[in-house]
Specification:
By secondary structure, the protein is an all-alpha fold. The chain folds into 2 domains: 1-403 and 427-526, no CATH class; 547-751, Up-down Bundle (Methane Monooxygenase Hydroxylase, Chain G, domain 1), CATH 1.20.58.220. It has helices spanning 2-38, 43-59, 66-71, 80-104, 110-132, 146-178, 187-209, 228-234, 236-257, 262-303, 323-339, 341-354, 367-385, 389-398, 408-411, 419-438, 445-459, 468-534, 547-578, 581-603, 605-611, 619-649, 657-682, 689-693, 696-716, 721-756, 760-764, and strands at residues 219-220, 226-227. Strand 1 and strand 2 form a beta hairpin.
Length: 765
């Protein structure tokens, strides 16, 4: 039986590495987003700065894993075997939960995750112990540190509101003072802003970074034989004032003599500070439980007492983690930062929610987001009516954004926000976390950094009328994910603990195997999703300004649509013939995907028209009409895929042999049409379109004949209303599909022909 605990230790070591990987993938968003979003520094520089911060934070960490050891439960109430089962349950749940959120691209709190995992597992074990002893279940409070749990919950609720509000206020004041033309302001304004920001960030490094290290508990003569921690706690105002004056002078000297962009320096130092604090303080979330398990195992092994009788009171004492383990942890975190694609996916969520102007909106509006936006607009209009018009004009001028004429594709190469907002994000997050740490208030760095970024976005008017409902829906989704993290962690870890407690070694082996399978499945699913996003088959937006340029440039798009249309239509008919529900479901998704891409092209129309030169304004009509025809094609395919899937999904009768045969005849003719069209557009041989158009009437006649035959069948032999409805729907939608395709071909053929032979323009009109 003793061997099982050694194997548990091996499992905990492996789980620790896995937790470091998924944890960094989630928490990298906290210190990378401001630098990446503002593009103040190159991506390589950002990663190097963050890596140094992580390495320093991990290596010089105090190594005191108090939360995992005694912060949530009272260790003296449990025996060694019970503690080990709790730790295994916690680690399995934590890894799976964080990986789930990473795969979704949703930032969550590793602190909340580990705390509620510990709470859930400890409560479950306490209930099992009480039940076995026929005790009173109200005694569960003796096993749990309830005061700490309540503090964390209150900290979560308060930090969300406070971070959002303060971030919004500070950003509004900063923008009012500096505007968007901050680079042209007098040098002293940059020096004062630099002094404020850098002193706040430095104080954050002292409080959150250095105060947690062993150096902070040593006495130093230059600060009156006090420890650094004591000095920082008793001399708050002196440290802040001296810090500000020193950094303001340094900033002015750098700006004046070294021509330094002080905002880039702020962002670089801020990124380093958050990475340092993350590694030094959040390390407990990833390796605290395995370290506590190791120390428990060492104490039990030396005792010679049976596992079921050895009290874990030893966990109540302070034991430092070996520096080697901290070094290894730091290296794993740095490697994950460079290699993890999910870390960047999670970061994209926050950056897009705070992006200035257009973004790929991931979240759909809901009732709550619409209501909040509507209410906020009403309040804003009321408040605005109370302000004198000259004051409003002056404020609006400070918030006036520089005009940049770029296509939508190029918008995404611009910074998501400027360096002022990035600096405020880092400065405010650092201040709030420092203050909370100095007062020993529990909070989540993820919650604070995310909500500060959302508050600055709102104050900076990044959420306009065209994006507000999407952005608010995104914020609400992320917040809902935070609270669900706590609930899921508590319930899941408790459930897993119960399984382990009753199943012992066999249950642990099965759960570990199942966890590996789930992680591999998520990894494969995420890679597949990533490849679909990057697939070269996607439609490309037009950039040309002339009609001929649009014709040439969009040829690949048309060939792409035609190729995919042939496949979607054929799959619909074949799926109906085979009654293959899964096949039809996948095909319906392909139709929806194509429709979504074409809709994205339609949304590009605004940018396309804005970029047109006056001499080529006619290209806008061509582009708009082409988008209309493509939309008609996609809608017909979407409808055909949907009704085919629904028919089989509802278990209606199969189509009859003659109906399937006739549909396959149409499919064959359409395949020929699509193949010829695809080749013409791929080769840009638009003169071939004329020969394709000659077959238009034959296709229409074929569909009309099928309709007439079905009418006759319905009157004489057809007995299934659903089959008749489906068949007529397919035929009529096929005719609409042909019409849209032929109209598109005629548009390209006529315009191409007229561009080559100008004399033909009059004839065609």
């Amino acid at each position: 039986m003793d061997n099982i605990y050694f194997l548990i230790m091996v499992a905990l070591a492996v789980l620790a590495i896995a937790d470091l990987v998924v944890g960094v993938s989630n928490d990298a968003v906290n210190f990378l987003n401001s630098a990446i979003g503002s593009k103040a520094l190159s991506f390589k520089t950002i990663m190097i700065v963050a890596s140094i911060g992580i390495a320093c934070g991990a290596i010089f960490s105090s190594g005191l894993m108090e939360v995992a050891r005694k912060g949530i439960f009272n260790p003296g109430e449990f025996y060694f075997d019970e503690i080990m089962f709790i730790f295994v349950a916690v680690m399995i749940t934590d890894i799976l939960l964080l990986d789930f959120f990473n795969t979704l691209g949703m930032p969550t709190s590793t602190t909340v995750s580990i705390v509620f995992n510990l709470l859930g597992a400890a409560v479950a074990m306490a209930l099992i112990k009480i039940g076995a002893a026929n005790g009173n279940f109200s005694d569960v409070v003796n096993y749990i540190n309830t005061e700490k749990a309540v503090e964390i919950i209150v900290g979560i609720l308060s930090s969300v509101v406070i971070a959002f509000s303060i971030g919004a206020v500070v950003q509004w004041v900063s923008r009012l003072l500096l505007s968007y033309n901050f680079q042209k302001k007098p040098k002293w304004t940059g020096a004062i802003f630099g002094g404020l920001a850098l002193s706040a960030i430095t104080y954050f490094i002292l409080i959150k970074g250095i105060s947690g290290t062993p150096f902070a508990d040593r006495t130093y003569g230059f600060i009156g034989n006090m420890t650094i921690k004591a000095f920082l706690e008793t001399s708050v105002y002196q440290v802040i004032v001296v810090n500000f004056l020193a950094w303001a002078v340094i900033s002015y000297v750098l700006i004046l003599f070294a021509k330094t962009n002080i905002y880039k320096l702020i962002i670089g130092v801020g990124t380093f500070s958050l990475a340092l604090a993350f590694a030094g303080n959040d390390l407990v979330n990833f390796i605290g439980v395995p370290i506590a398990g190791l120390q428990s195992y060492q104490a039990w092994s030396a005792s010679g007492i049976p596992a079921s009788e050895f009290s874990m009171e030893v966990l109540s004492t302070k034991v430092e983690t070996p520096t080697l383990l901290l070094f290894i942890s730091g290296m794993v975190m740095v490697a994950t930062l460079w290699l993890s694609k999910k870390a960047r996916y999670v970061a994209d969520t926050e950056i897009n929610l705070s992006r200035e102007g257009e973004a790929n909106e991931r979240f759909q509006p809901n009732y709550l987001s619409r209501s909040l936006v509507r209410y906020t607009i009403a309040v804003s209009e009321w408040a605005s009516s109370m302000v004198p018009s000259n004051v409003k004009a002056a404020v609006d001028k400070r918030f006036q954004k520089p005009v940049i004429n770029l296509s939508k594709d190029k918008v995404h190469h611009l910074p998501a926000f400027d360096m002022i907002r990035a600096s405020v994000n880092l400065m405010v997050a650092g201040i709030l976390i420092s203050v909370a740490t100095s007062y020993k208030l529990p909070l989540s760095t993820t919650y604070v950094t995310f909500m500060v970024a959302m508050g600055t976005s709102l104050a900076d008017r990044a959420w306009g009328a065209e994006s507000a409902v999407y952005r608010v829906a995104g914020v609400l989704n992320v917040i809902a994910g935070w609270f669900s993290t706590a609930i899921i962690a508590f319930l899941a870890s408790g459930t897993i603990l119960a399984l382990i407690s009753f199943g012992k070694g066999a249950a642990i082996a099965i759960l570990l195997f199942a966890s590996v399978l789930l992680l591999v499945r998520n990894y494969i699913s995420y890679n597949k999703k990533t490849k679909e996003i990057k697939v070269e088959d996607r439609l490309r937006r037009a950039e040309s300004s002339s009609i001929q340029g649009v014709i040439e440039e969009s040829a690949a798009n048309i060939a792409n649509v035609v190729k995919r249309s042939k496949k979607i239509y054929s799959n619909s008919i074949n799926g109906l013939a085979k009654q293959d529900l899964n096949f039809l479901k996948k095909n319906k998704k392909q139709g929806n995907k194509l429709a979504g891409e074409i809709e994205d092209l339609r949304e590009h129309t605004f940018y396309f028209i804005k970029n047109l030169e006056e001499a080529h304004i006619g290209a806008s009509n061509f582009y708009i009409n082409a988008m209309g025809h493509l939309t008609d094609v996609s809608q017909s395919l979407e409808y055909i895929g949907k009704v085919s899937y629904n028919h089989v999904h509802n278990n209606h009768k199969k189509l009859k042999y003659n109906q399937i045969k006739e549909l396959k005849e149409i499919d064959q003719k359409l395949e020929e049409l699509f193949d010829r069209t695809q080749k013409a557009f791929e080769a840009k041989s638009f003169e071939q379109i004329g020969a394709i158009l000659d077959s238009k009437q034959d296709l229409y006649d074929m569909v009309s004949q099928k309709i007439d035959r079905q009418v006759s069948r319905t009157r004489t032999e057809e007995s299934s209303p659903k089959n008749t409805t489906l068949y007529f729907s397919l035929l009529l939608e096929t005719r609409d599909l042909m019409t849209a395709m032929m109209d598109l071909l005629e548009q390209y053929f006529q315009q191409h022909d007229s561009s080559i032979t100008p004399a033909k323009i009059t004839e065609k009109k």
